[in-house]
Write a structure and sequence with these properties.
This protein has 280 residues and is of the alpha/beta class. The protein has 6 helices and 13 strands. The strands form 4 sheets. The protein has a 7-stranded mixed β-sheet with strand order 7-6-3-8-12-9-13, sandwiched between helices. A hairpin with a 2-residue loop joins strand 1 (25-28) and strand 2. The protein is globular.
């Protein structure tokens, strides 16, 4: 499935949003987009000619099963503060003016994705791993004509507590950087190394950071880095920065907030709900 131009009624797929005066139409099988989040499209191409400044695109891998969450639904669809978790994540990203578009990469057989999220492109090209899902999403952007010099901000769907301000701070810090970077948090706690359930040693925490998302890199460089890692089944690739690091480059660390947790375990849902309700 590619992010290519198509007229309404052609092909099969899932619709996101509605086709009204603000939705110019489908940009590919299984994908709809609201014009508020996407650039105007010409009759010849679904994307305009690249502007002088690189654009920013958000990419959410959303094909996981969330097995560690211990819930009947994939964790991104678990209700938190009255809405599916992923909708809180998307609401934060839609509040970032610098983002040109938001693409969510779903599992091909996802039966839970809603059909009423404005400004979001849904792509059913999820892979067996997070890295493969990101790789597939990046490749779809390139196939659609997005320039390799554009920025892509990859964000965990389960980080529903990220704020527009944090994302904007990352963009501002990395827009002129030769490599790109990621939100991260200086390690605040004492870190222990373990052997057989007992402390083996205490690890020096100076210069240690906890990686978060979004992670912001140029489309071409990130796709090429993941292409190299694909040859070994993405072994050792735990995030986008690790793929970039393998090429010898050093991503910039942009300090984030402790609240930007990745909802993973059952007790994380209660914490996320409490924080979200405190913001209203």
């Amino acid at each position: 499935m590619a992010l290519a131009g198509a007229q309404r009624g052609q092909g099969e797929g899932h619709a996101v949003g509605t086709n009204n005066a603000n939705t110019p139409g489908r940009i590919g099988p299984g994908v709809w987009v609201n014009s508020r989040m996407a650039p105007p499209m010409s009759a010849a191409s679904p994307f305009p000619a690249p502007p002088s400044l690189p654009r920013c695109h958000a990419l959410l891998p959303c094909a996981g099963t969330g097995s560690r969450a211990g819930a009947p639904l994939p964790k991104q669809y678990q209700p938190v503060a009255g809405r599916p978790l992923v909708q809180h994540t998307l609401a934060a990203l839609r509040g970032v003016p610098r983002l040109d578009r938001i693409v969510v990469v779903l599992a091909p057989d996802d039966a839970h994705w809603p059909a009423d999220i404005d400004g979001v492109q849904a792509l059913r090209r999820g892979g067996a791993t997070r890295a493969e899902t990101v790789f597939n999403g990046l490749r779809a952007l390139r196939e659609a004509g997005v320039p390799d010099t554009d920025w892509v901000l990859v964000h965990d769907a389960a980080r529903c507590l990220v704020t527009p301000e944090e994302v904007t701070a990352l963009i501002e810090a990395c827009a002129g950087d030769p490599v790109g970077g990621l939100l991260a948090l200086p390690l605040p706690d004492t870190l222990k190394d373990e052997v057989d359930g007992r402390v083996a040693r205490t690890i020096e925490r100076r210069h240690k950071w906890l990686a978060q998302t979004p992670q912001m890199f140029r489309l071409g460089e990130l796709l090429d880095a993941l292409s190299e890692a694909r040859a070994t089944g993405f072994e050792g690739i735990t995030d986008e920065a690790s793929a970039i690091e393998r090429t010898g480059r050093r991503p910039r660390l942009v300090e984030g907030r402790a609240s930007n947790i990745k909802v993973t375990y059952p007790h994380d849902f209660a914490l996320a709900e409490a924080i979200l309700r405190s913001r209203t």
